[in-house]
Structure to design on (327 residues):
């Protein structure tokens, strides 16, 4: 977008540009001119009149004149020849207009492209969630979001609580949900639900007939049907056992979903520690028995997570609102 050598040498500052223009300031040429001043100059070229150009932009003519004078000082060039009969472009002004038209065209493309990106962003939402949240809470929240925004496209990636934060940090998900006992570093969080872990067994298991609460030492010493390491449920259990001075859990069988663990317990494989959300129905209908415990606190918070320093907007904010509405 360079101007010709003859144009560049046609003006030798300091020179005044006519009435009201003020001295030129070539030292200011390193600063970028504002787009609206360039747009005003282009309109002067198109309409042949400063007054008409000002009217097109909805500003007063004196304000337009001051804006072009400031542009001249910034560029170090006389752009308009001001006379009592009006204003016309100088040769330098015509050359700047040619460059400005290309700049404004690219700026318009930038704005249009940004609008398209916002439209796509506001039309879709990528969510990552731990398995317990995805199976027992998210369906109701997403159903409410769907009622509010039927046109919204939602994709859900289900993984364990250890992996959800990385998906959010890398932008693979705009919002995440975890059941980890501690908030992850580098992310903002909000509690969306409370939960507690229960010890459950099949009705035929000896623990189903205990007359006293199960002690934490016995729980820690007994091999259990467990979720995989990195899951929020496994993390919460091991932290609770360590807080109670009993060490980590012992593994009888390790499975990758709450549904698999629950079915293994129902089948008589062994006891498990599971989210109340995952076993509530099975306990109510007698397929599982809740075993009362003592000496251990297995309550936890279920959290939404998003990049630190940002406020959720658009569909992510709407989904967060659905979690509050569902309480």
């Amino acid at each position: 977008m360079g101007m010709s050598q003859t144009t560049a040498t046609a003006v030798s500052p300091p020179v005044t540009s006519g009435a009201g223009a003020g001295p030129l300031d070539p030292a200011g040429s390193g600063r970028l001119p504002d787009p609206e001043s360039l747009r005003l100059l282009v309109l002067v070229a198109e309409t042949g009149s400063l007054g008409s150009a000002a009217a097109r932009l909805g500003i007063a003519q004196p304000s337009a004149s001051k804006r072009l004078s400031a542009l001249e000082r910034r560029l170090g060039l006389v752009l308009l020849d001001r006379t009592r009969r009006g204003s016309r472009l100088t040769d330098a002004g015509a050359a700047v207009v040619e460059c400005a038209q290309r700049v404004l065209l690219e700026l318009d493309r930038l704005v249009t492209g940004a609008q398209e990106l916002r439209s796509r962003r506001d039309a879709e939402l990528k969510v990552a969630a731990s398995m317990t949240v995805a199976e027992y809470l998210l369906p109701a929240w997403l159903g409410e979001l769907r009622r509010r925004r039927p046109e919204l496209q939602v994709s859900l990636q289900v993984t364990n609580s250890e992996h959800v934060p990385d998906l959010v940090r890398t932008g693979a998900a705009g919002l995440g949900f975890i059941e980890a006992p501690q908030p992850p570093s580098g992310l903002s969080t909000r509690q969306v639900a409370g939960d507690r872990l229960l010890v459950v067994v099949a009705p035929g298991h000896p623990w189903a007939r205990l007359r006293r609460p199960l002690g934490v030492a016995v729980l820690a010493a007994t091999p259990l049907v467990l979720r995989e390491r990195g899951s929020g449920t496994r993390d919460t259990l091991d932290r609770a056992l360590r807080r109670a001075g009993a060490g980590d859990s012992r593994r009888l069988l390790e499975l990758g979903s709450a549904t698999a663990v629950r079915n293994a317990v129902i089948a008589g494989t062994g006891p498990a520690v599971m989210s109340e959300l995952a076993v509530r129905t099975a306990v109510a209908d007698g397929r599982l028995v809740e075993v009362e415990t003592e000496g251990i606190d297995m309550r936890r918070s279920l959290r939404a997570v998003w990049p630190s320093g940002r406020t959720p907007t658009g569909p992510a904010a709407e989904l967060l609102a659905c979690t509050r509405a569902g309480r």
Confidence is low (pLDDT under 50) at residues 1-24. The first strand starts at residue 80 and ends at 83. Residues 5-89 form a domain with the Arc Repressor Mutant, subunit A fold (CATH 1.10.10.10). The chain is about 45% helix and 20% strand.
